[in-house]
Amino acid sequence: MSPVSRGFHGRHRARGVDPGRVPPGQYVTTDFPVLSAGPTPRTPLESWTFSIRQAGETAKSWSWQQIRELPSEAVTADIHCVTKWTKLDTSWQAVSLDVLLGQVQHQARYVRAFCDGGYTANLPLADVTGGRAWLAYGYDGAPLQPEHGGPARLLVPHLYFWKSAKWVRGLELLAADEPGFWERYGYHNYGDPWREQRYSGD
Amino acid sequence: MTQTSYGPDDGTLDGNAIGGLLRELFGTEMTTASGTCATCGYTAQVAQALVYLDAPGAVMRCRACAAVLAVIVRRQATACVDLEGLAALDYPPPSS
């Protein structure tokens, strides 16, 4: 570890940034750091699908082409990584999860995203509906690159970015909450950056 | 190609990158230990595993199938070590 901590580089106060947009303990970066817990998956688009599962069954599945034909939005959002970087005004092309979940009859209260590579992330249904979460396939005017989760990732910008699962392939509808990959290992179950919910117990 | 393939990614680390961490946790040199993947059965030295350190914790994966072998997360004085993805971890390694 470097003997000089990040704090001594003065990155916490980027020039011209409204401090009200930077959650506690975060610093603003203009880079887009890549943090992965595994090798980058590459799935050919012709065999890629996005599925909603319920009670062990696939309730609905879309091909890449079908996802691209759904109404999409240009989303601008600030994103906050638990490793303390915040990136402002990121721009995405994405389908609202309201559109996808609206095509399935369910009474779920939680979802768990599942991904190529085995990664999972759990979220309350209330946090992925109401225009607060998306399936994103475009970033900064271009297709979302594999290192950033392409062809598609979740975008849930109001929570720490580990919840915005990369290489997502679907959502599992759940009646009861079940922890995802990092949540099993002591990361906070909810992950609100404004309350600095990094670890379980925060 | 119709299935998902993985990597190779530039700069992926191997088990030697967590040699110090494992020595601290297990009290001995573990990179020469023999690990068997619970997913595909591939057996190799810990040193040969794929390791990801830029995530919130250290993640060790099988070089053959990329399944998670072990996750180590440290918070303050406590280390959480999950070896669920290992069918076996033999130290000293069985003689060949």
Would you write up a description of this structure?
The complex is a heterodimer of chains A (202) and B (96). Chain A is mainly β and 202 residues long. Chain A has a single domain, classed as Oxidoreductase, molybdopterin-binding domain (Sulfite Oxidase, Chain A, domain 2). Chain A contains 4 helices and 12 strands. Chain A has helices at residues 64-69, 97-101, 125-128, 181-184; strands spanning 27-28, 41-42, 49-54, 57-63, 73-80, 85-96, 110-115, 120-124, 134-139, 142-143, 153-155, 168-174. The radius of gyration of chain A is 17 Å and the shape is globular. Chain B has 96 residues and is mainly β. Chain B has one domain (13-90). Chain B has 1 helix and 9 strands. Chain B has one helix at residues 19-26, and strands spanning 5-6, 13-14, 34-37, 43-45, 50-52, 58-61, 68-75, 78-82, 86-90. In chain B, the strands form 2 sheets. Chain B has a 5-stranded antiparallel sheet with strand order 2-5-6-7-8, with no helix packed on it. In chain B, strands 4-3-9 form a 3-stranded antiparallel sheet, with no helix packed on it. Chain B is globular, with a radius of gyration of 13 Å. The model of chain B has no long low-confidence stretch (mean pLDDT 90). Chain A binds chain B through residues 33-44, 46-47, 82-83, 116-118, 147, 162, 182, 184-187, 199, and chain B through 1-9, 12, 50, 52, 54-57, 59, 61, 66-68, 71, 73, 75, 80, 82. Strand 2 of chain A pairs antiparallel with strand 1 of chain B, so a sheet runs across the interface.
